[in-house]
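Model it.
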Amino acid sequence: MSHSRAFTTLGFTAALLATTSVMTSAFAQTSAPAAEPTSVVTPGPFTANLTLTNDYRYRGISQSNFRPAIQGGFDYAHSSGFYLGNWNSSISWISDSASLAGNNASAPIEMDFYGGYKYEWSKGFTADVGVLQYYYPTTNLSAFAANPNTTEIYAAQNFTFDAVTGYLKFSWAATTLFGTANSSGSNYTDLTVNYDTGVWGLALNAHVGYQYVAGQIAGGGMSNSSLYSYTDWKLGVTKDFGSGFSGSMAYVGTNAKDGSYINPQLQNLGKGGFLISLTKTF
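Modeled.
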């Protein structure tokens, strides 16, 4: 289960506020990006995955400035229900955010580390709790007022009803959220549902989530939520090619405010767009 991640970039408004915060991308496919079904493979304690995608979107926000990304990770699942994992992706939001603020900082990769416990308390119903650490190896980190590294605690309820699977998940930030000043206690609610059509290995995917950003803008009376909170959604289809290969296509969108999540070209990184990816599970 690849947990990632990443979620926002430094907003234009934040840049104008003298780089008092750095909004980043994080999920991460959280519970790492376990947002969509992948090819069915024989379960084992160790698994790995590699993905090529035309855009890395985390919680609806592009983490790669609408450019392709390479992603991959490793997972260990013990028969007791405990698990550990790592997931990584190429990103550009840190260097993009720095350039918006007139600074020179960069981090070409997002590294997610997570661990937790899953328990099937009833047939088709599995509870999942854990901790996810987003880590960004960054040069010239002192250019920013807040560290983008983020720790989230999550709880999820997975469900299965015949051909329908999915989960409801809540993630809570124990630290500031992706470099946003005064944002500890931010949270994200995620509902994802998948339907296995039984035809040609196709599954339909639907998702809706809400990102709440807590706290106040540094140096001002405006709340972080008024600028950075938003809803995101996704509709897509996944194709199982067999032998651990799967492909997916989806349309994603958000209602993120213009000016809150932007790239150096002043484009809204939460605008609607199509995603195409190819994944190999080992």
